[in-house]
Structure formats: structure tokens, C-alpha cells
Amino acid sequence: MKPLQKKIFEYDRRIERADELAGRYPFAKAPLAFYAEIVKLQKELYSELTSKQDSRLIGPVDGNLRSEIDFAILLPEYPKFLAAVERHAPRPLAAAAAKASHQGSPAWVALLNSYWTRGGKDPESCGNSSLRDIDALQEFLARGFLLGYAEYVSEAMSEPTLDSTPYLCPKCDSLPLLGVLRPEGEGGKRWLRCGFCAHEWAFRRILCPSCGEEREEKLPVYVAEQFPHIRVEGCDTCKRHLRTIDLTKDGNAVPETDDMAAIPLTLWAQEYGYARIFPNLLGA
Ligand SMILES: [Zn+2]
Ligand SMILES: [Zn+2]
User: Fold this and answer.
1) Which of 36, 141, 150, 219 to pair with 7, CA 20 to 30 A apart?
2) In degrees rounded to 5, what are phi and psi of residue 183?
3) Average pLDDT by consecutive 10-residue portion of the chain (284 residues)?
4) CA–CA distance from 23 to each of 137, 195, 256 (Å)?
């Protein structure tokens, strides 16, 4: 399969899975339907970028993904994204999209640049200045749109050579959004998936990706009966948690979509005081 076809197939799987899960988890129906609309836009943007075949869009061979942003290609696509959010989002977000669509290019460049340079990074590493100038709704308007572009640039980049296990994405320095356990040998191998560009890198199973804790008794794992293939991997040292999709338990799971359905796990983690390392697009 060609890379474009493979990617389109992946986007289609995310959308189909949202439909499957909406049937299984009625409480997640509305957020899954909205998420599916966002994925459709990402798929369109991805096809658009690929069809342009612009040499400027081939990412840097080495170095950081964040040095690449091409507004000449991105800006003409942005009004379509804002209009779709206005149509499908819950009211406060729809209103923010309507407001943004009237603001025009200079405001869009400022917003997209702000997220592109600092989104997904650890607030502490940015001296707490990360994204302070934009609110959660604006952050969504940048993140939802740029995710497709970040995935595109990330895939065009060469694989980074790793001499240790990085805690942040080796392509863009973002925090991990999810863990993914993929079948390997008798068990599962753990990968971390980047919250900014969706790149995956291998990570040790018994190790907190936030603080480096490696004592097993400090790393509780919670699995709810309702989601046997999703693990809440906590850390009692830093009180953070990673949500991990276990593909050894459900081979049909699509990590980013299954994550959107797991709303009760967010509530559980909050109740027990484990903050998510990096929340998903819908803020859960
Ligand atoms: Zn990344
Ligand atoms: Zn920790």
C-alpha cells in the first residue's frame, strides 16, 4: 500500500471505530460523533497536502519538526476547519470558532504559531509560559487543525536515532498522549504516542514516562470492567497517569478513538488524584 493510501485507511479506521464505539458506549456518543467530524477534516487536509506535492513540505531530514510550518499552504484550509467546528461542536466551542473565522489571517497566524511552537510541551519546561496567551477553546482551534499537518510533517521526517529512551517525542519534544501495547512474542511491547505529531517510540513497560519512577509498587495499574483493553497507568511518586490502549486485549482498537470513549476513566483518575500527563483533544 502506498503511504497516502495507508494513511487514508488509518483515518477511515478512526472514523469507523468512533461509530462502533458509539454503539457500545452510549454516554460517549456525542463526543465520538464530534471527534469523527474532526478526523474527517484531518483526512481532507492530509489528502490536500499530499496532492500538492510541494517540495517545501518535505520535513527536515534531521532536527525538530517544529521548525516546519508552511502558512501559504495551511491558511487557505483554515476557514473550512473553523466552519466545520462551528457546525458540529458544542456551543462554547462553536462560538469560539465563529469568532475566530471573522478575525482573519493575522489572528490565525498568531494562534497557529503559538500552538505550533509550544503546544504539547511540558509547562514546567517552558517556565510556565506555555500557551498562557490562549484559552482552552482557542487551543482546541489550533490543535485540532494542526494535528493533521503535524502528522504529515512527522511522517516526512527521517526516523531519529535514539541512544536512550526519551520521555518526550524524539521528533517534536511533546509529551506523550497515550501508551500503546502491541503484541510481541508472548506479551505486549509498550510504545508511547506523541500528543502533538502522533509519532510512536518504544518505551519500557515498568517506568513512569513523567518522572522516571521504576519501582513497580509505586506504579499502580487500574483497568475498569467496562474497558478491559484500556489501562490507567498511575504513578504514586509524581501523581500523574498515562492512559494505555492494550492491543493485545483488543486488536480492533484504534488508540486515539478508543481514548475518546473512555470518559469514565478520566473521572476515576481525577477522583484518585492522578493528573493525565497530556489530555486528549477533547480535554479529557
Ligand atoms: Zn511528536
Ligand atoms: Zn511518575
Assistant:
1) 141
2) -60, 135
3) 82 97 97 97 89 58 74 92 96 96 96 93 63 82 94 85 87 95 92 96 95 97 97 97 97 98 95 96 92
4) 28, 26, 17
CA of 247 relative to ligand 2 center, distance in Å: 23
Model-level pTM?
0.92
Neighbouring C-alpha atoms within 13 Å toward the C-beta of 274 = 25
The residue among 264, 223, 271 whose CA lies nearest residue 244 is 223
- Residues 196 and 263: beta-carbon distance below 8 Å: no
Q: Which residues surround ligand 1, an ion (CB under 5 A)?
A: 169, 171-172, 174, 194, 196-197, 199
151 alpha carbon, closest ligand: 1
| Ligand nearest to the backbone CA of 218 | 2
Query: Going by C-beta distance under 8 Å and a sequence separation of 6 or more, which residues neighbour residue 118?
Result: 126, 129, 130, 131
- Give the angle 264-268-270 at the CA atoms, nearest 5°: 115
- How remote is the CA of residue 241 from the centroid of ligand 2, in Å? 8
Number of residues in the chain: 284
End-to-end CA distance of the chain: 34
The closest ligand to the CA of 237 turns out to be 2
Task: Find the ligand nearest to 198 CA.
Answer: 1
Which cell goes with 37?
Answer: 467530524
- Judged by its nearest atom, the ligand closest to the C-alpha of residue 234 is 2
pLDDT of residue 53: 60
CA of 202 to the centre of ligand 1 (A): 13
Give the pairing type, strands 176-184 and 240-246.
parallel
Distance 201 CA to ligand 1 centre (A): 10
Q: What are phi and psi of 53, to 5 degrees?
A: 50, 40
Distance of CA 115 from the midpoint of ligand 2 (Å): 26
